[in-house]
Write a structure and sequence with these properties.
With 395 residues, the protein is α+β, with helices and mostly antiparallel strands. It folds into 3 domains: 13-132, Acyl-CoA dehydrogenase/oxidase, N-terminal domain (Butyryl-Coa Dehydrogenase, subunit A, domain 1, Orthogonal Bundle), CATH 1.10.540; 138-235, Beta Barrel (Butyryl-CoA Dehydrogenase, subunit A, domain 2), CATH 2.40.110.10; 244-389, Butyryl-CoA Dehydrogenase, subunit A, domain 3 (Up-down Bundle), CATH 1.20.140.10. Helices cover 49% and strands 17% of the residues. Helix 7 (244-278) packs antiparallel against helix 8 (290-319), helix 7 (244-278) runs antiparallel to helix 10 (360-372) and helix 9 packs across helix 11. It is globular, with a radius of gyration of 22 Å.
């Protein structure tokens, strides 16, 4: 790790405030293990995957072997980690690439979470063990072409015909749908919004990857069409009716994002620091110029503050005191600041920064999608505004 020295004061560049002291030995061991995996498996390959818009199909099983799927679920072959441990893992994965962290978010925080929270015991036994191993892939169908930030206006509907559910509608920006084995589809029914477990081999289910993309190129997002998809009565998730179901899963994903974005920011900062210490102009390293140091200092400030926000949020989640509106604080702040850090890091690399030889612009491009999904900046601003004033301002 690069160290900066001034007089008698010495501080690791990536941990200026010695925040490692706030983590347990077990948490730091998990961080180091996931970081080692990312350094060995993702970073050497991500440029090629990103340029080719390729998601490595072998990766889910490798992530399962690392215990990174269904992280906070106990039983069903899942590791039963704490919320803080999950956050740490998300941060390290996103230091590799946001798109690959997104895979874990979709599989873990959305699909597996929905089944674990709201599924029957038979549904849990059917899907969760294979998903924990990465042998089965899930996706989560909530967003629609005309209903993004306002899921209550979804068009997808399900009706009972005899002893079968029949689903019709469309979903958009659904991660992993074209490689998934099961889709959790949220649809309107006469009882309200319900979740359905839809095996993707079911006639009438079609998933089409959205291409080309300028962001999340090493990830998969799809359009889904549902054309008279017929399901058995036990396909419905029995444990919830209404939007509180999918929204609680979104909170799980948002929590992972507020940690994950810090990984992209940290990786970009470290790339800029290393480059400016090595690159010489006007007879000295550009890290020795005042404007460069100002940029580095601004990055350290926001990364360290963001990590404090993430850690405190995680401790509250583990204690059972975290409120959904508090997750919005971290998602809004940490993603917004991470984008700014990645963009600034790119400027410090000069023209070299627009190549895939360096990570900041790739991270910045990915974070544009992260900033949009699981609640836009505007939505999280309004969630916080409602919490502050007790006045909803969504319409």
């Amino acid at each position: 790790m690069t160290t900066q020295m001034t007089g008698e004061f010495t501080a690791p560049a990536a941990d200026y405030l010695s925040l490692d002291s706030l983590f347990s030995v077990e948490e730091l061991e998990l961080r180091d293990r996931v970081r080692k995996f990312v350094d060995a498996r993702i970073k050497p390959n991500i440029n090629a995957w990103y340029e080719a818009a390729h998601f490595p199909r072998e990766l889910p099983r490798e992530l399962g072997e690392q215990g990174l799927l269904g992280m906070t679920i106990t039983g069903y072959g899942c590791p039963g980690l704490s919320a803080v441990e999950k956050g740490i893992a998300m941060m390290e994965l996103e230091a590799g690439d946001s798109g690959l962290r997104t895979f874990v978010s979709v599989q873990d925080s959305l699909a597996m979470s929905a089944i674990h929270k709201f599924g029957s015991e038979a549904q849990k036994q059917r899907w969760l063990p294979g998903m924990a191993k990465g042998e089965l892939i899930g996706c989560f169908g909530l967003t629609e072409p005309t209903a993004g930030s306002d899921p209550s206006n979804m068009i997808t509907h399900a009706r009972l015909e005899g002893d079968e559910w029949v689903l019709n509608g469309a979903k958009r920006w659904i991660g992993l749908a074209s490689i998934a084995d099961v889709a959790i589809i949220w649809a309107k029914t006469d009882e309200g919004i319900r979740g359905f477990l839809v095996p993707t081999s079911t006639p009438g289910f079609t998933a089409t990857p959205i291409q080309p993309k300028l962001s999340m190129r090493a990830s998969i997002q799809c359009d889904i069409t549902l054309d008279d998809v017929r399901l058995a009565p036990d396909a419905v998730l029995p444990g919830v009716t209404g939007l509180k179901g999918p929204l609680s899963c979104l909170d799980e994903a948002r929590y992972g994002i507020l940690w994950g974005a810090l990984g992209a920011a940290r990786d970009s900062y470290e790339a800029a620091l290393t480059y400016t210490l090595q690159r010489e102009q006007f007879g000295r390293p550009i890290a020795g110029f005042q404007l460069t140091q100002e940029k580095l200092v601004a990055m350290v400030l926001e990364i360290q503050k963001g990590l404090l926000v993430a850690l405190h949020t995680g401790r509250m989640k583990d204690a059972g005191t975290l409120r959904p509106a508090q997750i919005s604080f971290g998602k809004l702040n940490n993603v917004r600041e991470a984008i700014a850090i990645c963009r600034e890091a790119r400027t410090m690399l000069g023209g070299n920064g627009i190549t895939l030889d360096y990570s900041p612009l790739r991270h910045a491009s990915n974070l544009e999608a992260v900033r949009t999904y699981e609640g836009t900046d505007e939505v999280h601003t309004l969630i916080m505004g409602r919490a502050i004033t007790d006045i909803p301002a969504f319409t």
